[in-house]
């Protein structure tokens, strides 16, 4: 199969011919139809995540078609449309795995990091961590939801009927939710004098800093010192 291979950090991916992967007992073999690019992929390429297997096929926002099955696979059939996310394998035995928190497993292995991912014509994945996908929407539309979409969905599901959802990020976000608290963490090397443009941050929606967004406030920039005084609903 053809694949894009990361051979070392801070280097371009290399077009390579690799042997076709073979599914293990609990794996599905799939033909990759689309694979998104996540910021985590860039962290791996830049050497900021320091323990990936190398050489490595990156990519963990995979949409594929099942073309092969391990002997114990029961959830999928040939021809199924399947999504593959970041979490690729867990032990199934630790206190996290046995309490429905397998994302915290100390022995977890990750797609496109510990396990070859989707920047290739073919890939294999543990059926436990694959998602059955409907026929629509398109492969390109679905792929990013297998990482960023899952994170947001999980937060909303855990929040339940909460009236406010906190978002912690270095980046600037907008939210369609009418009552969203936006919180920012300052990277250690970024000076406190940095500012965030309020209009870009909120795009005219909802509440941040504990009061409604007004027309007068939308064009203003707030220092990180001011933002540090934002009421944090999860810090109680």
Describe this structure in words.
With 236 residues, the protein is α+β, with helices and mostly antiparallel strands. It has 2 domains: 2-155, Medium-chain alcohol dehydrogenases, catalytic domain (Quinone Oxidoreductase, Chain A, domain 1), CATH 3.90.180.10; 162-227, no CATH class. Helices cover 15% and strands 27% of the residues. The protein contains 6 helices and 16 strands. It has helices at 39-45, 139-142, 148-159, 198-202, 215-218, 224-227; strands spanning 2-6, 14-17, 27-35, 56-57, 62-69, 81-84, 87-89, 109-110, 122-126, 131-132, 165-169, 180-184, 195-197, 207-208, 211-212, 221-223. The strands form 6 sheets. It has a 5-stranded antiparallel β-sheet. Strands 2-1-4 form a 3-stranded antiparallel β-sheet, with no helix packed on it. Strands 7-8 form a two-stranded antiparallel ribbon. The longest helix is centred in the middle third of the chain and has 12 residues, at 148-159. It is globular. The termini are far apart.
Low-confidence stretches: 169-187, 190-236
Biggest sheet overview: 5 strands, antiparallel
- The backbone outline, from C-alpha atoms, is globular
- CATH architectural designation of the largest domain: Alpha-Beta Complex
Classified in CATH, the superfamily of the largest domain is Medium-chain alcohol dehydrogenases, catalytic domain
Strand content: 25-35%
**How many beta-strand segments?**
16
Record the strand order, biggest sheet.
9-3-5-6-10
Q: Helix/strand/pairing class, anyone?
A: alpha+beta
Top CATH class of the largest domain: Alpha Beta
The number of domains is: 2
SSE string = EEEHEEEEEEEHHEEEHEEHEH
- Alpha plus pi helix count: 6
Proportion of helical residues:
10-25%
